[in-house]
Specification:
This protein is mostly beta strands. 10% of the residues lie in helices and 58% in strands. Strands 1, 2, 3, 4, 5, 6, 7, 8, 9, 10 and 11 form an eleven-stranded antiparallel sheet that branches.
Length: 250
């Protein structure tokens, strides 16, 4: 996932360089819905998307005693990601021709698998999978973003979007379940940066958008499951990552 994050950032950087010259790459065609950008400064819509929730885990690398009295040295990481989905309402305020402010309250659902591996000190490498936990998330989110668009040419135009997104995870307050002994804090604030393309259709505007989202805070919770306190003790911190592919209808 770290490699994917770097790839997304590189894509966004290249898109930033490409936006001003977009018009030179497009040939003029008959305009569909030519008055869309000249209408009311405030408009609404809805969005659906697919997300991939990840996290950067910082390990303590200390020896702990498990529930059986065995001394173990554990190393953990997010080993697999289950695609989730987002549903959002869109409110956009046009500030000037190519600049607007967007607010997209909604919900994000996803799941991450946190895996713990036992390290054999004498081998100095990962020996075997020790335990896996499926961490589910049901987040209320409030993205506040600035959108910068290139000039419209023909019936499409690219744009960049960036801002912050406070998220509150309703599932983080759940009681510990069988096999899940690490909890995350419910509140985090994410930095977001994305790139997309608007397509003008006869009755609405359709957009596709790829966005990278990175949490500001350590979301590892101080809550511990009785008898399994050693699991969170092996972790020094967790920082959330997310990639979202969205489809907007405005």
């Amino acid at each position: 996932m770290k490699g994917i994050g770097l790839f997304v950032l590189a894509t966004l950087f290249l898109a930033l360089l490409a936006v001003p010259s977009w018009g030179q790459l497009r040939k003029d065609r008959p305009l569909i819905n030519p008055g869309y950008d000249l209408g009311r400064p405030l408009h609404f819509g809805f969005s659906m998307g697919i997300n991939f929730m990840d996290a950067e885990v910082k390990n303590n690398q200390i020896v702990v005693q498990d529930e059986n009295g065995k001394n173990v040295l554990l190393w953990s990481d997010v080993s697999s990601i289950t695609p989730g989905f987002n549903v959002n309402i869109i409110a956009e305020l046009r500030i000037k021709e190519n600049l607007s402010l967007r607010f997209l309250p909604g919900m994000a659902f996803g799941q991450r698998t946190l895996s713990f591996y036992e390290i054999r000190v004498e081998k100095k490498n990962l020996d075997s999978l020790y335990h896996q936990m499926k961490i589910e998330s049901s987040m209320i989110e409030f993205p506040l973003l600035v959108k910068y668009s290139a000039k419209r040419h023909s019936n499409s135009k690219p744009y960049l979007v960036g801002g912050i997104n406070p998220r509150y995870d309703l599932a983080a307050k759940k009681k510990f379940s069988e096999g899940v002994y690490v909890a995350f804090n419910p509140l985090d604030v994410y930095m977001e940066l994305g790139v997309g393309v608007d397509f003008y259709l006869p009755y609405f505007k359709f957009s596709t958008e790829l966005k990278y989202s990175r949490g500001f805070f350590n979301v590892l919770s101080s809550r511990k499951s009785e008898g399994y306190e050693y699991f969170p003790r092996t972790i020094n911190g967790v920082v959330s990552d997310m990639i979202i592919l969205s489809f907007h209808f405005e």
